[in-house]
Write a structure and sequence with these properties.
The chain is 40% helix and 13% strand. A hairpin with a 5-residue loop joins strand 3 and strand 4. Strands 1, 2, 3, 4, 5, 6, 7 and 8 form an 8-stranded mixed β-sheet that branches. About 6% of the residues have low confidence.
């Protein structure tokens, strides 16, 4: 009996996957098949490569300043992410450049989107880092990645929670983590109290991150004022993720679905890892009876 773990997209909300994996391990559940989309592919690859503890320790140490350093304010039309710094991070906490999917201790796949055709692409062999990078390439932040003569972008555009991939790879029971269950409309929260503005380089980079994570840091001052550019982007992305997730899981529902309560976390608030990971753990605890029922079924069929 093989257990599949489908780790969904959701940008900074994806650190909750770490809490989910750890909480499931405490219940004796160790997945055989790991399939991830976007941030889910990153955490899933780290887990499959036995680097999850290192990843957790690092993300829990992140500050807003450290996050800002991953972004470049420039005139490039390819994206805002500092790819060299991201590459260094992936090497240290996910997998090395020479790591291949076939060498991982667990069966692994990531999901990306073919930018030309719109088709879903499953990456089940070859470089681990290329599979992860292809899956996390959120348009507007990351440049598209060329893989096997295809320009690939974020898999969340086509399959935000890859239950179908787990099934296709042989999973008998699929546990899915949906990070998009309650996010629609949450980008119009009331603004937080203003703080003293820093006009230096760090301040400007932090302002960029803050503006892009407008699902939390709203700048709307009245009901009649239209949303800002970044509020519209965040809201549109949230709506797309929610609708596609609903459609895909209606056609191929998982056996267990975990839905962390993370609507208050902005798209790029990666520095809030401690509370996000904690919520991942709590969402497992909330449905322990259902999980225990699944374990009992597994024991019966051994």
């Amino acid at each position: 009996m093989k257990i599949g773990l489908a780790l969904g997209s959701g940008s900074s909300r994806g650190w909750s996957h770490i809490g989910v994996i750890n909480a499931l391990a405490e219940q004796g559940i160790d997945a055989d098949i790991i399939c991830g989309t976007s941030i889910g592919s990153l955490v899933g690859a780290s887990y499959a490569a036995n680097n999850l503890d290192k990843l957790e320790k690092w993300v829990c140490s992140l500050t807003r300043f450290e996050i800002a350093r991953f972004f470049e304010i420039n005139t490039s039309l390819n994206g805002f992410v500092n790819t060299e710094r991201l590459h260094d991070f992936l090497n240290k906490y996910v997998a090395s450049d020479n790591a291949v999917i076939d060498s991982l201790d667990k069966q692994y796949a990531s999901v990306a989107t073919d930018l030309e055709t719109g088709r879903e692409v499953w990456l089940t062999e070859g470089s681990v880092l290329e599979a992860v990078w292809s899956s996390i390439s959120l348009p507007g932040l990351f440049p598209a990645i060329k893989n096997n003569n295809q320009w690939l972008v974020d898999g969340g555009l086509v399959n935000p929670v890859p239950v179908s991939v787990c099934r296709a790879l042989g999973a008998d029971i699929v546990i899915a983590v949906n990070l998009n269950g309650d996010i629609v409309g949450k980008h119009f929260q009331k603004p937080k109290t203003a703080t003293k503005k820093d006009n230096g380089v760090v301040g400007r980079m932090t302002d960029f991150v803050t503006e892009y994570t407008s699902s939390v840091f709203s700048t709307i001052k009245s009901e009649d004022q239209p949303p800002s550019l970044f509020e519209a982007i965040a809201g549109s992305f949230n709506i797309t993720q929610d609708r596609i997730t609903r459609s895909r899981m209606a056609g191929d529902p998982p056996d267990i679905i975990l839905s962390p309560k993370l609507a208050h976390i902005g798209l790029l608030e990666f520095h809030r890892a401690v509370e996000v990971i904690d919520e991942g753990r709590k969402c497992v605890q909330r449905i322990l009876p259902e999980i225990q029922y699944m374990l009992d079924l597994l024991n019966i069929h051994k």
